[in-house]
């Protein structure tokens, strides 16, 4: 893969259509939404959050569950909500429509339409879910839709599922590279190829079992594909070849020309999005729309998280908002305004993982801005008049490679404790456990100790080998020799 240097400044100020009486999935100027995550113990109560969102002019919000206090707080707010059925419920939702009937009855119908639920995200990034819930995805989506039809709300609520995008996991992959197989090439979770954008294609093993049926469903029901896109991950995994300007929408030069069609890319975000459009086109789905269900840039990070700082976060999110509000789509679909949900509303202090994970917020829990960017056309006009977005040279960082350490399981802890810690690491902990799932490269030896070592080390590396990240209540310890997991 090859990337280039860039800079762009799409300073466009257009009218942001504030439609509150229709479902404004794609207004003429593109739409900006925000993910409202709540993995924190210091956030304001939901009614205050709704006031904050309204004061910011935000009309679209995505949440990660169907929490009743949150859903109630959005009642009569005029804000459109995307809610979620968590991965843990996918197998039940897939198994039986009576489950989804009940789920809709208790989680949607009591609130909708006073709380304007416009979409249900069924699962989240299931292709990288350590439990591999992939096979439940489409049946669960169908059952949810059938239940919505049954209760006569299917015309106002669409069903989709956020997918992990092309390059997002290179960061996880890089940080969890373990030597189960030397030089293990872990493929990106969704796309087989993503560069140049026009050659985008889905991973072949996902196409027949899940991608095609899902796109069929989306096409038939008038839904859209949800994609989580993080140029940040691609940038930190490839900072030697991707310029910061290209990652931050600051391309000022000639852009990166796609040799297959001559289209010019001035940002990694657009290239990532078009790779998914191209992949859909291969399967004949030329009219399915994409909503970027998560994207963002952290304002702080560990030493090895290159570029995670407030200046870059403000540049990424601010330039993205201007880009979206310009109403111009991507090079492959220029007439299709972008619809994007920023990640996230608040810094969330209970998110595990590297420091960046707790620093994606636009706001601190006390509702002060982490940095000042426009979120609406009005805001972007004021900002544009006041000051052009910052343009700095590439910031220079060095990644320390000395003193490499690894984390392994402590057999003495016993299987039960190891299993609990393993479940945590692969679940909430966010370790990359794909390679220890049945059939994957590091599944054998299939022992709790071996799997735990793999998972603990992934967690440890992802957390920047921070102190306390290789402990798991005594179930793990640090080693200075690269371990083998075979
Ligand atoms: C996950 O499940 C899907 C469908 O059941 C399968 O095609 C895929 O290979 C699985 N992935 C892994 C890593 O086991
Ligand atoms: C970016 O473009 C503007 C306008 O074309 C020009 O004035 C400026 O010097 C350029 N900056 C860089 C770093 O190339
Ligand atoms: C998408 O839906 C439209 C309208 O129902 C249909 O004509 C078209 O064939 C579908 N596309 C694919 C690739 O199935």
UniProtKB/TrEMBL annotation:
- Residues in the signal sequence: 1-27
Which Pfam family is an annotated match for this chain, by its short name? Glyco_hydro_17
Lineage top rank: taxon: Eukaryota
Using the record's annotation, list all stretches that form the X8 domain: 405-485
- Matches recorded under SMART domains: X8 (SM00768)
| Keywords assigned | Disulfide bond, Glycosidase, Hydrolase, Signal
Q: Is Transport among the key words of this record?
A: no
Q: Which family does it belong to?
A: Belongs to the glycosyl hydrolase 17 family.
Record protein name field: X8 domain-containing protein
Species of provenance: Rehmannia glutinosa (Chinese foxglove)
């Amino acid at each position: 893969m090859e990337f280039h240097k860039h800079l762009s400044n799409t300073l466009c100020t257009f009218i942001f259509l504030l439609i509150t009486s229709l479902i404004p999935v794609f207004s003429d100027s593109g739409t900006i939404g925000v993910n409202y995550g709540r993995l924190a113990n210091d956030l304001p109560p939901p009614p205050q959050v709704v006031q904050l969102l309204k004061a910011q002019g935000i009309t679209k919000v995505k949440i990660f569950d169907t929490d009743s206090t949150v859903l109630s707080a959005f009642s009569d707010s005029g804000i459109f909500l995307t809610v979620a059925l968590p991965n843990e419920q996918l197998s039940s939702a897939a198994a039986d429509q009576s489950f989804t009937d009940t789920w809709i009855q208790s989680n949607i119908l009591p609130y909708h339409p006073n709380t304007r639920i416009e979409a249900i995200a069924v699962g989240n990034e299931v292709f990288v879910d350590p439990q591999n819930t992939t096979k439940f995805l489409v049946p669960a989506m169908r059952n949810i839709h059938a239940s919505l039809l049954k209760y006569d709300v299917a015309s106002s609520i669409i069903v989709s599922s956020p997918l992990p995008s092309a390059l997002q996991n290179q960061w996880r992959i890089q940080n969890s590279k373990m030597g189960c197989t030397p030089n293990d090439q872990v493929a990106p979770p969704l796309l087989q190829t993503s560069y140049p954008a026009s050659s985008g294609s889905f991973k072949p093993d996902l196409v027949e079992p899940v991608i095609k049926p899902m796109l069929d469903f989306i096409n038939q029901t008038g839904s859209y594909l949800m994609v989580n896109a993080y140029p940040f991950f691609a940038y930190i995994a490839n900072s030697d070849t991707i310029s910061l300007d290209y990652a931050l929408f600051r391309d000022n030069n000639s852009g990166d020309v796609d040799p297959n069609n001559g289209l010019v890319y001035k940002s990694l975000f657009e290239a990532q999005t078009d790779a998914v459009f191209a992949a859909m086109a291969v399967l004949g789905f030329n009219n399915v729309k994409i909503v970027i269900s998560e994207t963002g840039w952290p304002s702080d990070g560990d030493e090895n998280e290159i570029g995670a700082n407030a200046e870059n976060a403000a540049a990424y999110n601010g330039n993205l908002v201007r880009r979206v509000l310009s109403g111009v789509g991507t090079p492959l679909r220029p007439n299709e305004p972008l619809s994007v949900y920023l990640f996230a509303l608040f810094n969330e202090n209970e998110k595990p993982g590297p420091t960046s994970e707790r620093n994606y917020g636009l706001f601190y829990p006390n509702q002060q801005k982490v940095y000042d960017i426009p979120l609406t056309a009005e805001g972007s006009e004021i900002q544009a008049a006041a000051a052009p977005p910052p343009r700095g040279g590439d910031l220079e960082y060095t990644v320390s490679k000395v003193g490499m350490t690894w984390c392994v399981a402590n057999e003495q802890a016993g299987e039960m404790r190891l299993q609990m810690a393993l479940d945590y690491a692969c679940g909430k902990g966010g370790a990359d456990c794909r390679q220890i799932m049945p059939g994957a490269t590091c599944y054998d030896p299939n022992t709790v100790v071996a799997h735990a070592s793999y998972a603990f080390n992934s967690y440890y590396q992802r957390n920047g080998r921070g102190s306390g990240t290789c402990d798991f209540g005594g179930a793990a310890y640090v080693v200075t020799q690269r371990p083998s997991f075979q």
